[in-house]
Amino acid sequence: xxxxxxxxxxxxxxxxxxxxxxxxxxxxxxxxxxxxxRRPLTGARLAAPDITIRLPAxxxxxxxxxxxxxxxxxxxxxxxxxxxxxxxxxxxSIEADDGNTVIARTHNTAHRGxxxxxxxxxxxxxxxxxRIAAMEESVEDLDSWRTFWx
Length: 150
Description:
By secondary structure, the chain is of the alpha+beta class. It has helices at residues 21-36, 40-46, 69-82, 142-149, and strands at residues 47-54, 65-67, 88-98, 101-112, 115-128, 131-139. A hairpin with a 2-residue loop joins strand 4 (101-112) and strand 5 (115-128). 21% of the residues are buried.
């Protein structure tokens, strides 16, 4: 039961109050930092329970879209395993379009044996109630992306 006077809001895309743009940018920066520091619990705390991650192509990750903390956690573990723990997503820019959408440009590098990944990626984050509700990845060099993750 909630303490007296505390209003509990249901998480939903419609009607979600906008977040301050600076706070939204900081949230995305903290999420990427948690990924790069291999802090999955920190990342999970910054994400909504029903977070969705959309990849540029299915690759070897069991589909293009992953929904929920468990499914996205498994996805991120597979990504780290496949890259032998070398994947780095270094932010180049993080800008809030409005309080609910943040666009991050990252420089991604990884290596696995003779395979190398070195490309720019655009990440579109949707923020809902102060948490990351969705992340959609896109790349210009899809062939390089597919070759590395195959």
